[in-house]
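Morning F.,

Quick status update on the modeling queue. The single chain you submitted on Monday has been processed. Sequence for confirmation:
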Amino acid sequence: MQFEVWAPKAQDRVTLRLGDAADHTMTRDPLREGWWTADVPASDGTRYGFALDDGPVLPDPRSRRQPDGPDGHSAVVDQTAYEWADPWRGRPLPGAVLYELHIGTFTDEGTLDAAAANLAPLAALGITHVELMPVCPFPGTHGWGYEGVSLWAVHEPYGGPEALKRFVDTAHGLGLGVVLDVVHNHLGPSGNYLPVFGPYFTDTHHTPWGSAVNLDAPGSDEVRAYLLESALAWLRDYRLDGLRLDAVHALADTRALTFLEELSTAVDALSAELARPLFLIAESDLGDPRTTTPRPQGGLGLHAQWNDDFHHAVHAALTGESQGYYADFAAEPIAAVAKTLTRAFFHDGTYSSFRGRTHGRPVDPARTSSHRFLGYAQTHDQIGNRALGDRLSATLSPGLLACAAALVLTGPFTPMLFMGEEWGARTPWQFFTDHQDPELAEAVRNGRRREFAAHGWEAESIPDPQDPATRDRSCLDRTEPAREPHTRLLTWHRDLIALRHSHPDLSDPDLATVKVAYDEGARWLAYRRGDLRVALNLSARPAEIPLGGRSGQVLVTWDPVEPPGPDGVLRLPPESCAVLSGG
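Structure tokens below.
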């Protein structure tokens, strides 16, 4: 077997250790600067590591498996050993309904196999793709996954690489695509040995996590290749359908050909090679439509991006919250929702009080397909980064939760739900870690408390990220869907998703055709999607909403309503919503 490692920081030698004590001196590759190779017999499961000069044996930067966690030796993985059961040909992003899922809390067991056993209800609900939060190895057993290392491996407590393949196979057998959240903008502080091998990080740029990943300084060609080939490996070896790229705005890159362009080009090429659709979804705080503009038109060529502006507008309208980045949206929240429904971004060159400057760039509705933006009312970030990890269900009535679902599932964007949202889960989703280093654990605990103390929270009220109970509280309660109001909310989500799949108007990507009317004071909003009308009353009082035109048929409604009379007025109960045909 050919072992290889990029280790330009090695002065004299690199040693390959197989098993407990079998050492093999590696040879410099004459054709690739900084690369060392060795041809040594090995098989699936063989443990190994690399030692530079007189240093300790370290895991392979391109390790496919870390059986003993980020600090342990790597293990060989035979990617051809798994026998795939489903001849999957892919499922594209246009027309999709996504479901964000965290393996460690989707079930009490917190494993890929346990999650796979609970996928059938999602397929029955009408979900088309599950979006997994990161699965790369991280310290301990439980965590969010954003402090991962070994970007080619699968967290062993989740089940390791074979379990991920079983999960994907099960999902595909149910008709579900699988998207994986990958983190290229930083690596975890624990178990991160990349700097020992080479210039994976640079002080040329700094990020909230410290030195930036090296995308444009000396040695960055190999770093970019490391990230790019890792991304392609997930799509190829695990038959994933797409990747969600974490915080691409934190990828400091001044090169003429950016890493994101290079990645999107490679993914499109792999899609053509495999003859199945593949896609990239960016998380971006830039408010820049060029992120998803096709490369021939001067964009980066990513296929979609999360739309936090839509989320913030919906959240402010539903909750009345106005702190932090909600301030701009809370001034006229119904108008903010209306703007995002028709222009995608709220900040499109407008002043942001949160940033203290103008922000964003306009989206051209005539040139930009609305499916390139993901719309959501809740995500892991927007729940878990709150002090108590409280969902909308902690404070909103079932009627307002139904309105949130209507905005997401009948709006112009590719909809995404966060796990449990479909039944109005009452379980929180809190920030939890399992750092094995006592000093790091204490730093994380105190940092969390300081962060929220600045906003008036008492330190003792902030859940301890290191307490196992914090993770346990965050697991879904699977008895809830059998009880009200959860059963009713689950039925509502199922009806809306079925409507989206059966009415082409709801998946029409033409943002320019979305027409919105609203009354800020009365707190109602209505919009038109082709021949369909969606009406929402966010007020605690009944609303009279002039829909105009011919009286239409009520297709789905949260509370019983009569279709509009000759006057074209729909009378909606408080905190309710309805979808109607145009008559």
